[in-house]
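Protocol step 4 of 6: structure prediction from sequence.
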Amino acid sequence: MSADGFASVTVDYNDITNGEYLDTLKKIRISSNESTAGGLVAIATGTAGTTAVTLDLFSLGYTDSNGDAVTFSSEAYIDGVAFAADPHGTVSICPSSGAIATQGGRSFKMGSVDNSVAVSKIPGSGFTVGGLDVRIVSEASPVSTITYTVVVWGRSE
């Protein structure tokens, strides 16, 4: 498998004030772009409730275009995660003990509302933490079930 991809996030707003003799414009922008050539990508979809759905981060059960299982050997080879949930859910990367994973004091948890896509690097990428799971939980109220999609991309050894 050799996946080529592009992850792009841009937040771009124009703050405009119109006056009698003067118009002012402030641009507000933050962006990040990352392209990957020859890497790995895996996707998992499903439903989750208030009890967490747990997925093995290194083997999400995804097969590539050849029909081969896509597996990551360690966190050192995972570059990023994208997550979308409807109506509202969170994803965290946790060791098997259930606590949110930290590497150098950093933790990983992000949320999505109305299928908006959240994209992030894995904290501590380049380090092997080992034994990590993806935990997905519904944060929707009063709805207790969500649909979700998780995409993980990175490199092979």
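Step 5 (inspection) to follow. The chain is about 0% helix and 60% strand.
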